What does this fold into?
Amino acid sequence: MTQYGLAHPLYLDVQMMVSFLAYLEGGVYVSTEETTQREKSKEGKGGGNAKMKLPSLGALLGMEASLSAEMGGRVGETAEIRVARHHTAASLFNALRSHLTDSKSFTIHRAEREEDLASLSSGDFVECSGRYTGNPLEKNLAFMGKFLEYIQLITEAEERNRQRSSSARRSGNPQTRASATQAQSPGGLSELADQFREFQDSAELNFLQKVKEEIEASPIQDVVLRTRPGLQVILTVSSDYYNQSVGEWLDSGDFTVLGKVTRVLIPGESINLSRRTVIGSMDDGEDMVTSLTTSFPLVGDSQSAVVNYPAVQVLPMAIYV
It folds into this structure.
């Protein structure tokens, strides 16, 4: 029985994939149609023309059949079946991957550990497997945004409580005033609300929000895959095919990447994952990013957003499982 190594791509650069496949195959057909005819004769008593309906499954497959007969003792029966097959982006990727794997004209390098970097050059096809870690700075900023939404709700609720308490203290009922006075002592939520109001107008928050907007608006995103032996693979993914939904599917899972090498880091080199923002282009950008991702109170400790050697940068065609 034929063994199929079917891959399911969660991220797929369709433009790159189709261009490679079109060059190798002299063009790409996204659909094909096959026609099969069968003829036989038998004794019969009827005549005329009729359509023969196939079961509902045949209709779903795009198949049709026709039946024709002539008057007389012999009946000529002709059945014609047309089958239309349509490729998907995933099926085309599996075809290309199979071709690259089986062909002796192409070499797909494996990159798993530091020693593998010596055999890699820009432009090489490379395949890496490991744990998807994403972009620490992007994930922390996203967490910050969600966390602030919750704090905003707490602040609004606390503000309503204060307004009710203030009204109660002005009440003409002595018992109501006494109850309001006892309830006005600050608690944990009240202190948190006060801290949020102070932080809400701070330059630090405005700065972080601007960085978040820059990352989201960039046509290219930098994410990381870490192999089991510790090699970091920086993936420059296209925003046309990478979005929040794709990131959620990939988050903390083990996947394989197939793509082209664009840079091999050497000892002493590093890549700042905030390089597509203003702070990434500053001379002290690395220190600033490290400070933002490790010292910011709402984010807390996190993985560094600066990727050091050993690492390789890859333009991915697909991230799949």
